[in-house]
């Protein structure tokens, strides 16, 4: 998906969300989740985590772990698309000089586990300092 499209969202001429597109995406997500479930169940039996008649807490723990993995992947993708939609430059908050932004990856702990999030940083040669661009300075 195009990052700008993802951030701005596609709306029809009346400015409302495109319900046909949303329904199509929900169907796609449902199919992808069913596929993930099939793979997870098969994997849990192949690696021996689930065998015989396990205690239900084992089934629940394994399912919860998959949910956490999905959450971390969604967070990482959201940040990638947000950064892809950002202007390549931003004003230094100290002096107002427009600076080229660079991507850096930072490991962070979310409620669902460790994620590698991309973030944009500017390096102002005039102030000799780095900064995070203002979220309102998207250049869009
Ligand atoms: Zn500066």
Structural class: alpha+beta
Give the number of domains.
1
Shape: flat
CA-CA gap between termini: 17 Å
Largest sheet, strands/sense/barrel? 4 strands, antiparallel
Arrangement of strands in the largest sheet: 1-2-3-4
Summarize model confidence as the mean pLDDT. 89
Q: DSSP strand (E) fraction?
A: 15-25%
Q: Please count the helical segments.
A: 3
What does the radius of gyration come to?
21 Å
Q: Which H/E pattern describes the elements? A: HHHEEEE
Task: Write a structural description.
Helix content is 45%, strand content 22%. With 140 residues, it is α+β, with helices and mostly antiparallel strands. It has one domain (3-131). It has a four-stranded antiparallel beta sheet. The longest helix is centred in the middle third of the chain and has 29 residues, at 56-84. Residues 92, 94-95, 97, 124, 126-127 line the site of zinc ion.
Briefly, what is this?
The chain is of the alpha+beta class and 140 residues long.
Question: Layout of SSEs?
Answer:
Layout lengths: L2 H6 L10 H28 L9 H29 L4 E3 L6 E13 L2 E12 L4 E3 L9
Antiparallel strand pairs: 1-2, 2-3, 3-4
Zinc ion binds next to loops.
Features:
140 residues, alpha+beta, 45% helix, single chain
């Amino acid at each position: 998906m195009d990052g700008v499209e993802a951030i701005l969202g596609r709306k029809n001429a009346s400015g409302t969300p495109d319900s046909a597109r949303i329904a199509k995406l929900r169907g796609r997500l449902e199919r992808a989740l069913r596929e993930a479930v099939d793979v997870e169940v098969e994997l849990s039996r192949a690696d021996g985590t689930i065998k015989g008649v396990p205690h239900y807490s084992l089934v629940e723990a394994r399912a919860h772990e998959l949910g956490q993995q999905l959450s971390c992947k969604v967070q990482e993708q959201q940040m990638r698309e947000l950064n892809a939609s950002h202007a390549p430059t931003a004003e230094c908050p100290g002096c107002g000089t427009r600076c080229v932004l660079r991507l850096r990856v930072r490991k962070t702990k979310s409620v669902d586990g460790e994620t590698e999030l991309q973030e944009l940083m500017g390096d102002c040669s005039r102030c000799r300092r780095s900064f995070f661009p203002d979220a309102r300075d998207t250049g869009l």
